[in-house]
Amino acid sequence: MLNNNLNNLKELIAPNEYNIIDEIEKYDSDRKALKFISKDGECEEISYHDLILRGNKLANALMNMGLEKGDRVLVMVPRMIQSYIIYFACWKAGLVIIPASELLRAQDILYRLNNGKVRAVISYTSFCDEIDKISTEANHLDYKITFSGQTEGWLQMEDLVKSEPNEFVKVSTTKNDPALITYTSGTTGQPKGVVHIHGWAFAHLRIAATKWLDIHEGDIVWATAGPGWQKWVWSPFLSVLGMGATGLVYLGRFHPETYLKLLQQEKVNVLCCTPTEYRLMAKVHDLSKFNFGSHLHSAVSAGEALNREVIDVFKTHFGITVRDGYGQTESTLVIGTVKEMEVRPGSMGKPILPQFVEIVDENGIPQEPGVKGNIAIRKDLPALFAGYYEDPVRTKNAFHGDYFVTGDLAYKDEDGYFWFVGRSDDMIISSGYTIGPFEVEDALMKHSLVKECAVVAHPDPIRGNVVKAFVVLKDGVKEEASLVKELQNHVKQLTAPYKYPRLIEFVQSLPKTDSGKIRRVELRRKDESQ
């Protein structure tokens, strides 16, 4: 296992001949790989051996229909066992996967198809209609494959694999061959394709799966991310199957009480959720009726900074410390609170590999403790992306000196802990004060009537900008004018008074990316249109 002072870069570098699925095939046995639970409680299980056999059959089918090493395949699937088989098969066949969220609309899909020069689409039957709206405009698309239902004009995956053998000779790939192109959600303009090579997976497992997630062989792991964004490859797929664990796969809408019941019922050992999911679970009434015993030994959160209130609730009621972490689509989990580390609520933790992560200024110069700057990752980290797909200018501009600059602002303290401030484009400048949205949101979330919130800058003729909060109240709470003043005073008591939200708008929900991050850019647009 890695330590925080790793100096031997060789530990993170994959062998020259390497494929992501090499990690999974080590566990070929009758050991349970996945347990699927539907929203209605129906269950299905699959062993590592059967997952590999089914993946082999599909890999044979994909090759026999004419796909070749390096071809791009757009995969649009929900949380299902078939989704794992599809990813396994594509990578064993040397194909490059482009994940697509089920929330994408026709124009979003068309952009990915043409920009990525996609030759095949594999989609769950319920998502085919949206893809069919644009299929005639897709310049490179040759094959459309669906499963779990018939769709006119689509090849049926179940039929394709019927006569295929259970054995498949893996297509030879090197550590530098592309494996994955993930299109980032972004805030403006068209999304950019982030290219990861097979060797990225080798480094990811040795950084995130072992040190941060703390997964051991045989653990039951529930990572709630859905296919369609990189976090699913990170945790539910690679970190689970690459460590010989059993993945819990739940196909149902998020409901905090349902999640807590499943954690208890399935004796989950490792939990990886979004901050939003943790926040809403922490707000459930009467948490004393849930008991995870000694089963849950690791609980982690990534995507946005986690509020101290949430950490305290889980520690008090369940005896488990939810450990924060930070990574981007372009990398892996690079900053985190690992198990043996002192927890400082509100901090991301420390760089797992200190020599590879820094706070830098606009010129890529490392900064002293206490000085705000960009989180930056040294360009020779093996878990860093290979570049933006067919966009050398954007790739070049993302690097300053020796570092890839993330665009996320933070500072480090004297002990090396990193503290999140906000996205560089989310910062609020009001009367000369620089205000990070998270610090205001954190204060609001400590109010007993607040379910969720997000803070943005609102133009003001005198102050330049003022802080505006969009607040989702807990179920049953009335939106009364007096509550605005109460929330404002609450924030003033918990943080510097100049940070309080001068404007508060009550809303029913907050716009989020598929990965669960709040889309403040949409809230700013909403505010501007009013």
Describe this structure in words.
This protein has 530 residues and is of the alpha/beta class. Among the domains are: 46-173, Rossmann fold (3-Layer(aba) Sandwich); 426-529, GMP Synthetase, Chain A, domain 3. Helix content is 28%, strand content 26%. The protein has 15 helices and 27 strands. The strands form six sheets. A nine-stranded mixed beta sheet has the order 2-1-11-10-12-13-14-15-16. Helix 7 packs across helix 8. The protein starts with 21 loop residues before the first helix and ends with a helix. Mean pLDDT is 91; it is low at 1-6.
Question: Features of this protein?
Answer:
disordered N terminus, GMP Synthetase, Chain A, domain 3, 27 strands, 530 residues, Rossmann fold, 5-stranded parallel beta sheet, alpha/beta, globular, 9-stranded mixed beta sheet
The CATH class of the domain at 46-173? Alpha Beta
The global form is: globular
By DSSP (H or I, 4+ residues per run), the number of helices equals 15
| Total beta strand runs | 27
Class from secondary-structure proportions: alpha/beta
CATH topology of the domain at 46-173: Rossmann fold
Mean pLDDT: 91
Helix content: 25-40%
Strand order of the largest sheet: 2-1-11-10-12-13-14-15-16
State the distance separating the first and last CA atoms: 53 Å
Strand content: 25-35%
| Low-pLDDT runs | 1-6
Annotated CATH architecture of the domain at 46-173 = 3-Layer(aba) Sandwich
Alpha carbon gyration radius: 23 Å
Largest sheet properties:
9 strands, mixed
